[in-house]
């Protein structure tokens, strides 16, 4: 390969690198504040999955604390509320395990690194509600993603 071919190859690699970097940054960065993200999910939950509040018997106070400041009540009904909501959005499977691909695609600030780490911890929990609670708790706190 002559020097012209080598320079063309280097130029092509640089272009590919910058395109890849731009895609990565746009895919994993958000200008939304934590408040914006929580308000958006609260509203989506009210609109798309209002049944979760009634079917689980969770106290409204626990739900409000979660959407206001990511406080997670250590309460069985609240844990099942989280399962109901995030299962409804298809980011949590029926057995309480996470759908890693959809979590990363759907939820702002989530990365494969966060989800993989947290799924490993959560998958050890004995039932779907506790697995969901552990996964959500870990993901929101991992490297201060939200809190």
UniProtKB/TrEMBL annotation:
<dbReference type="GO" id="GO:0005549">
    <property type="term" value="F:odorant binding"/>
</dbReference>
<protein>
    <submittedName>
        <fullName>Uncharacterized protein</fullName>
    </submittedName>
</protein>
<keyword id="KW-1133">Transmembrane helix</keyword>
<feature type="transmembrane region" description="Helical">
    <location>
        <begin position="6"/>
        <end position="28"/>
    </location>
</feature>
<dbReference type="Pfam" id="PF01395">
    <property type="entry name" value="PBP_GOBP"/>
</dbReference>
<dbReference type="InterPro" id="IPR036728">
    <property type="entry name" value="PBP_GOBP_sf"/>
</dbReference>
<dbReference type="InterPro" id="IPR006170">
    <property type="entry name" value="PBP/GOBP"/>
</dbReference>
<keyword id="KW-0472">Membrane</keyword>
<keyword id="KW-0812">Transmembrane</keyword>
